[in-house]
Design a protein that fits this description.
- It is a single chain.
- With 748 residues, the chain is α/β, with parallel strands linked by helices.
- The chain is 24% helix and 20% strand.
- The strands form eight sheets. It has an eight-stranded mixed beta sheet. A six-stranded mixed beta sheet has the order 13-14-15-16-19-26. It has a six-stranded parallel beta sheet with strand order 22-21-23-20-24-25, with helices on both faces.
- Helix 16 packs antiparallel against helix 17.
- It is globular.
């Protein structure tokens, strides 16, 4: 009896005289013939797309004049390779839009149109350079490139031609990378309007950056970064998205930095070259801290720094800018007042109220009176970090007094761990130690650097010999030693963590030592701090922290302090900044209570929201359009919007591990030459899972034989796809895990 199913498929018969046709993957629904922008994935080896992990933007060739035919055109006409040879295949549901391009010199584009591949930076006078203020017309022309619309589905094809489908879906936070509304066309700014865009810092703690635009001038306030979180594994820092500013470099007049903490200065080395390296205005200590960090980036252009003081007025572009002093945990913190024809825009930076028992000090009252007594404040932007906590924060003077008592009365070594950025507290502790005849040991690179800066600026007033090295500790009695260390947050490689783990080369704790954690616990660090305290306790040390004594004070105002600050400034409009959305919402309620603001007078933004004060200061609105808001990440030497697939791969590897199958196929009959080798990392312990591995090998053997049946030559990409699908399905059923399955197949 003849069985037609056993006949060789003529498509793979080399002797039928016809070239083999591309083999379609019918798991995807074919696109109707009338849609020329659809690109069907084929199993043709020539058309195999390659995974794009190295950044850059792929280009698509969309020849809309090509008629639909039964056979696909060659791969070179559909998917031209990018510079690194990678290709992308559009998945189901993908849409495309065409960008209109004027007939411009190479490298020039209209404002708001993003190039598929960014042009190289052109020096002034070179062909294609656009001078500051030059207007470029954007006449409509025939579409030349197609850009992928955010939100459409794309399958990134791995090097071996297989779509990336493994692993759990990326968390909601990371979908912003793919779904960021970078295509929004923001309307032109009216002559009687002021535009404010918080580019970061209003959906998180960190990466604070705000742009204020009026007429032809843009002034930026702060340029910080945020440390990585659980949604960005392997990332170094998270930056504000500055694409809006990059497209308007010619309008940027200055960057004003309110103080020297990294959530306000950390992004400077990465962002300044991208926005044209505008001049920086800040106070003395902040400028030195910025310059010190720039030494780690010798390859970038030097910064232009201008020093200002709290009672100074400068002209930046066509705007007058004034400054006022604020209380924070670092010296030289300041707020900013930008004068416009319709009133002043005020940004406080980070601040708290200097008070004793809820009564502001005379210095605090005098500064706010000087700055705002005769000021017509149109809009206020203020710190929201601790506004949800009722009452008043612990005054810094109270913390200084308590630390002085501990230093004075210690009977053994005293180890004080705190943030290296709390310079005022560090200076006071060093002075107290000298006052009571004790020696100070500095442990931690950032602490040593900041202490040296303070000595250079004349902020630290101690005698030579007060600060000693850890090699000289044994020359003094234990009760005369005060150690200032980093690591109060349980940082893995910080000094205090090494002391607690007994890996510090010079310091071993005993039951006479006292450890003071002079800092609060940052959300997310609770477990690390608890582990730190456990390890310190095991060595017999006595531990004092902010819950047991007043040894730490925040640098951010509580609710009642915020009320007082609002009543001193008296704004017409208000926009909270610096905090999570809930904090901003609570701050908005405080603003309404303080000055009777109405609902329409308060705007609660998201990152990259476009807020405008319109009609000559008559109203404040939040536009529907947003500036580009995708995550900008520092990933090793790479700075930019890391592809979502990279983050998803890292999360999949961290959660479920990797499962690699290595097999050799006999090209003549399509059978495996030997049992496949299996390598697993982070999935199962191989020695204890031999039965599972035996079943996987049998499944692979059966899958290979089915996939190669009737093929001549063998389509290796199709075989790999089949192995991936079947093995992934099997492992999920048996283990409830989704490891990343990677088949490596050779034919001999």
């Amino acid at each position: 009896m003849n069985n037609d199913n056993n006949k060789p498929n003529p498509q793979f018969n080399r002797n039928n005289g016809n070239p083999p046709r591309p083999r379609f993957d019918f798991r995807r629904r074919p696109n109707p013939p009338h849609n020329p922008t659809r690109i069907l994935r084929t199993e043709n080896k020539e058309l195999g797309a390659r995974r794009k992990d190295e950044g850059g933007t792929p280009q698509f060739n969309t020849n809309t004049s090509r008629p639909a035919t039964s056979a696909l055109p060659s791969s070179s006409s559909l998917l031209p390779a990018s510079s690194n040879g990678h290709r992308i295949v559009m998945g189901r549901g993908a849409r495309k839009r065409f960008e209109t391009r004027p007939n411009l010199p190479s490298g020039i584009r209209p404002v708001g149109v993003r190039p598929m591949n960014p042009p190289a930076v052109r020096p002034v006078g070179a062909p294609g350079h656009v001078a500051s203020g030059q207007v470029v017309s954007a006449a409509r022309v025939e579409p030349k490139h197609a850009a992928h619309i955010a939100g459409a589905r794309m399958d990134v094809i791995r090097k071996e031609g297989r779509p990336m489908k493994r692993g759990r879906p990326a968390p909601t936070r990371m979908t912003a990378v793919a779904n960021a509304k970078d295509g929004d066309v923001i309307p032109a700014l009216a002559a009687d309007s002021i535009r404010i865009i918080p580019l970061g810092g209003v959906e998180e703690i960190g990466r604070n950056m705000t742009a204020i635009e009026f007429g032809d001038d843009i002034i930026i306030i702060d340029c910080g970064f945020q440390f990585k979180d659980e949604n960005t594994p392997g990332i170094d820092y998270i930056l504000p998205n500055t694409k809006y500013l990059e497209e308007r470099q010619h309008k940027i007049r200055a960057l004003i930095v309110t103080h020297g903490h990294l959530d306000h200065t950390g992004g400077i080395p990465y962002i300044m070259p991208r926005i044209g390296n505008p001049p920086i205005y800040t106070r003395l200590l902040t400028s030195v801290l910025i310059q010190k960090r720039q030494e780690e980036f010798p390859h970038i252009p030097k910064l232009s720094m201008t020093l200002v003081e709290q009672n100074q007025t400068v002209t930046i572009g066509k705007l007058k800018v004034k400054f006022f002093s604020v209380t924070h945990t670092i010296p030289d913190a300041m707020g900013v007042i930008i004068e416009t024809p319709y009133g002043s825009i005020v940004h406080t930076g980070d601040l708290k109220m200097d008070h004793m028992d809820g009564v502001p000090t005379d210095e605090e009252v005098a500064e706010y009176t000087r700055a705002f007594k005769n000021e017509k404040v149109l809009m206020l932007m203020a710190d929201s970090t601790n506004v949800e906590i009722p009452g008043f924060s612990v005054p810094e003077k109270t913390v200084h007094k308590n630390l002085e008592e501990y230093i004075k009365n210690s009977t053994g070594r005293l180890i004080i761990a705190t943030f290296s950025s709390l310079l005022e507290r560090l200076l006071k502790m060093t002075e107290f130690a000298e006052k009571y005849g004790k020696k100070v040991v500095i442990e931690g690179r950032s602490l040593k650097s900041n202490i040296e800066i303070c000595k250079h600026l004349g902020l630290l007033h101690v005698k030579n010999g007060t600060i000693i090295s850890n090699d000289d500790m044994d020359n003094y009695p234990p009760d005369r030693i005060v150690i200032l260390a980093t690591g109060a947050q349980g940082d893995e490689f910080a000094a205090l963590m090494r002391i607690s783990n007994k890996t510090h080369t010079k310091i071993r704790l005993n039951n006479r030592d006292t450890v003071i954690l002079s800092s609060s616990v940052i959300p997310g660090n609770e477990r690390a701090v608890q582990k730190l305290k456990d390890n310190l306790s095991r060595q017999g040390a006595r531990i004092i922290h902010y819950r047991t004594a007043e040894v730490h004070s925040t640098g951010h105002a509580y609710r009642d302090e915020t009320l007082w600050i609002h009543r001193q400034i008296r704004p017409k409009f208000f926009m909270p900044v610096h905090g999570y959305h809930y904090m901003l919402r609570v701050h908005a309620d405080v603003a309404k209570e303080a000055n009777g603001l109405k609902e329409e007078d308060v705007v609660i933004p998201d990152n990259s929201s476009v807020v405008e004060i319109q009609n000559g200061g008559a109203k404040i609105v939040k536009l529907r359009e947003k500036a580009p808001s995708g995550l900008m990440l520092v990933d090793g030497f790479s700075v930019g919007d890391v592809q979502d697939v990279v983050i998803r791969d890292r999360q999949a590897l961290a959660q479920d591990g990797i499962f690699i199958v290595f097999g050799i196929i006999n090209a003549s009959n399509g059978h495996l030459k030997k049992s496949p080798d299996i390598i697993s990392r982070g999935f199962v312990y191989l020695r204890e899972s031999q039965e599972l591995l035996h079943k996987v090998r049998l499944l692979i053997k059966d899958t290979v034989e089915k996939a190669t049946r009737g093929q001549n030559p063998i389509n290796v990409d199709f075989v790999k796809d089949s192995i991936t699908d079947e093995v992934s399905k099997f492992l999920l059923q048996k283990t409830a895990k989704r490891p990343m399955v990677i088949p490596v197949i050779l034919t001999i």
